[in-house]
Amino acid sequence: MLSVEHVTKRYGTFTALEDVNLAFEPGVYGLLAPNGAGKTTLIKLLATLLFPTEGRILWDGEDIHTLGAEYRGLLGYLPQDFGFYPSYTARQFLRYAAALQCLPKGEAEGRIMELLDTVGLADAADKKLKTFSGGMRQRVGIAVAMLTDPRLLLLDEPTAGLDPRERVRFRNLIHALAADRIVILSTHIVSDIETIAGQIVLFKDHRLYCCDSPARICAQWKGKVWQVPAGTALGPDQLVLSEGQSEAGPVLRVLSDTPPAGAVPVTPGLEDAFLAIYREEGRA
Ligand SMILES: Nc1ncnc2c1ncn2[C@@H]1O[C@H](COP(=O)(O)OP(=O)(O)OP(=O)(O)O)[C@@H](O)[C@H]1O
Ligand SMILES: [Mg+2]
Predict the structure, then answer these.
(1) Nearest ligand, CA of residue 42?
(2) Which residue segments constitute the domains of the chain, with CATH numbers given?
């Protein structure tokens, strides 16, 4: 349906993405990578806001730049820094966005009410955006991106700044929206997509590292993640992934092919996999 073929994007001499190949079908895809990895670059390429330096992006076999307006008509996009007018109400802002997208007025009103309800803002429809929390604003952004009932929904860091309750609400919303469309969302927060993304796309060194289910990504680290009490002496090949607390006191999660002294094997989670994959980048 949507395919990325040998796409390279350079900014001047800097290569942000190199030879990326991906195929998307309806479902939720999480672009999970550290800051600067190229998530926004890929989303902007998919949104036709950037041209690939090399390679091409196809929708049902046709180049998205050749399809032009036809392709943009089936696309919803929430930018990483989504601008809004603080003195507009949610309803006014959606009306404005609907007009920009040339939605017929009669059709727009019904759609706006329906969407405000979907994103849980029906009661706040006539409140000004400046009074909204970060999560409420993100939900307005998602409603804007959903105005045309897009077959492809691109959300760049939609969970930035959300509190835990809003994160749960967001996850449920994405589940509901993803039934029959492609949803691609970027984040560097593992827990935000662990449970909602069917497929996780990881970039490393500006190349595609993998596109796989969370379970399969985690399975690669099976038998290699251990928990030890904090302060345990570790060998040179035994790498601390994270520190935490257990009932018995402070503990470390350690990546190692062989068990460290006193270690308990633990089931690797997506966070362990993320930390293990990006360990040389000094982020663990
Ligand atoms: N217009 C530009 N000109 C030059 N370099 C750019 C430009 N836009 C992005 N870059 C660089 O390309 C790389 C990828 O940037 P991108 O914004 O795609 O990363 P990201 O994964 O979205 O990061 P973040 O998590 O911080 O949003 C970064 O090193 C960035 O500095
Ligand atoms: Mg970004």
Answers:
(1) 1
(2) 2-214 (3.40.50.300), 218-281 (no CATH)
